[in-house]
Design goal:
The structure is a single chain. By secondary structure, the chain is α+β, with helices and mostly antiparallel strands. It is 33% helix and 16% strand. Helix 4 packs antiparallel against helix 8. The two termini are 24 Å apart.
Length: 329
């Protein structure tokens, strides 16, 4: 393998794939710095893209940045590279999340490289899925994807799924009573299509999905009571396929690991023909986060609730230009 620093065009392509990752409210809270003399790419949290009311500990921010880091690793492996990653290399700088030596001398990770075609295909789908069970073999591949990143993925049974849905409704009720949280949601979502204003971040109206008839699926309603022109209603699956992604510990470095595991699961799901949506609503309230965990499992801390299934793909959400978030030195 070459140890020569990569050219800027190659790094730009890697960062483009990295930033296809999901993030809370599509805030895209990441920034990159490439040190061309050493071939090191640094990942930072962008303090201007935090959600202090929704995500006061920046747990969701780090999960999103971890997802971007996994995409970067996948894209690098597909390009024949073997990056060496250090998480939170300077504890004194909380915004400095990872340092990636792009020109490692080991062999590329073939398992990661195989996921590369799914990076640009993966989009959150808040549409109705079919009432179809995910096969056991597929579930095991998804669980293995999480394990490969040091996390756990569990598929709760029927009673626990109903408990999770109740926690989602509880979180929605709490959000409705918190003006600061609602204002943050309004700030990062738009009731007009993305073509109307050309915004490069946030969630546009076409990504909201229809309103639910009933409350059978854990899909966040980003309208927050606002009228959305042309938005209809749909009956969602009555038996949703829910997965819980969790970690043994609950520190900032664990959130970065959870983000990498989350994106690896989502890319594997996309590869296997599944679509997915995410909800962190009940996890954003410390008073009810504990209730999402299955008390009979070994999972200590739930980091994300994932809805998986078979159905229409969601629309692509807007992305910021790489030039706005990649600093080359």
């Amino acid at each position: 393998m070459t140890t020569e620093p990569l050219d800027v065009n190659t790094v730009t392509a890697l960062v483009t794939d990295a930033t296809a990752a999901p993030s809370l409210h599509n805030a895209q809270p990441w920034a990159f710095r490439y040190l061309r003399d050493t071939g090191v790419l640094r990942l930072y949290a962008d303090p201007e893209r935090t959600l202090p009311r929704t995500d006061p500990e920046n747990r969701g921010l780090r999960i999103g940045c971890g997802a971007a880091l996994l995409n970067l690793r996948v894209a690098a492996a597909a390009a024949g590279l073997a990056p060496v990653v250090r998480l939170m290399p300077d504890p004194a700088l909380a915004e400095f999340l990872a340092e990636v030596h792009l020109c490692g001398t080991g062999p590329p990770d073939d398992a990661l490289a195989r996921l590369a075609p799914s990076i640009q295909l993966r989009h959150s789908s808040r549409l109705a899925f079919r009432d179809k069970e995910v096969p056991a073999a597929t579930k095991e591949r998804l669980a293995e994807a999480a394990r490969a990143e040091g996390a756990q993925l569990r598929f709760p049974d029927t009673w626990h799924v109903q408990s999770i849905l109740a926690s989602v409704r509880d979180a929605e009720d709490r959000e409705a009573l918190e003006p600061g949280v609602r204002e943050e949601t309004v700030r990062w979502t738009r009731t007009e299509p993305s073509t109307a204003d050309g915004a490069a971040d946030g969630i546009p109206a076409e990504a909201f999905g229809p309103r639910q008839r009933g409350a059978s699926a854990p899909v966040r309603d980003f309208a927050v009571g606002r009228p959305v022109p042309g938005r209809g209603w749909a009956r969602f699956e009555q038996n949703p396929n829910i997965a819980l992604l969790g970690t043994a510990r609950d520190e900032p470095v664990d959130w970065l690991c959870a983000g990498q595991a989350l994106e690896r699961v989502l890319l594997q799901a996309t590869t296997d023909g599944l679509v997915a949506s995410l909800t962190s609503q009940p996890l954003e309230w410390s008073e009810i986060r504990w209730a999402v965990r299955d008390p009979f499992s070994a999972m200590a801390h739930v980091q994300m609730v994932i809805r998986l299934g078979y159905g229409p793909e969601g629309p692509a959400s807007p992305r910021r230009p790489v030039a706005d978030l990649l600093d080359v030195r």
